[in-house]
Amino acid sequence: MKARGKIAPAESPLRPTVSRMVEDVIGCKWTLTIIELIRQGVCRPGAIERSIEGLTAKVMNERLRKLVRYRIIERCAYPEIPPRVEYRLTSFGQKFVRILDAIQELERECVAEKEAIVNEIKRRKGAPA
Fold it and tell me: What are the HTH hxlR-type domain coordinates in residue numbering (predicted)?
């Protein structure tokens, strides 16, 4: 039978505004990737670190702590030997990533629009006047 893990409480009952969290998360080159890995089921710190080339344990742990503080993810520590820690999205985190998904979709639309404009310009240059 597996032991149930304890979920660590957030450090503070207050968290920044959602707009500040979005700014902070999008402004960090590692945080988006960490969130995406956790969404895909990569939930153990060692696996997260191995999955992202160039990410150090120090930076990863800082980002994980920040996401826990924002209550986007929760840390679950299992009373096992050796100790096991996993992270998962909270219910707030599942709502929060929808904002990130919408931003990524908007980015895809902007890229597609830009490509269409570039292709139209190329087509016009190639067409006889």
Answer: 15-115
Task: Say how far apart CA 3 and CA 87 lie, in whole Å.
Answer: 16
pLDDT digits over 25-64, tens only? 888 889 999 999 999 999 999 999 999 999 999 999 999 9
Domain of 13?
A: 6-95
- Residue 73 burial by CB count (10 A; 0-12/13-18/19+): exposed, middle or buried? buried
Domain CATH code at residue 47 = 1.10.10.10
Length of the chain: 129
With respect to residue 103, please indicate whether it lies within any of the assigned structural domains: no
Residue from 82, 70, 76 nearest 19 by CA: 70
Is 129 among the domain residues? no
Sequential DSSP letters for 57-119: HHHHHHHHHHHHHTTSEEEEEE--SS-EEEEEE-HHHHHHHHHHHHHHHHHHHHHHHHHHHHH
25 within a domain of the structure (yes/no): yes
Domain count for the chain: 1
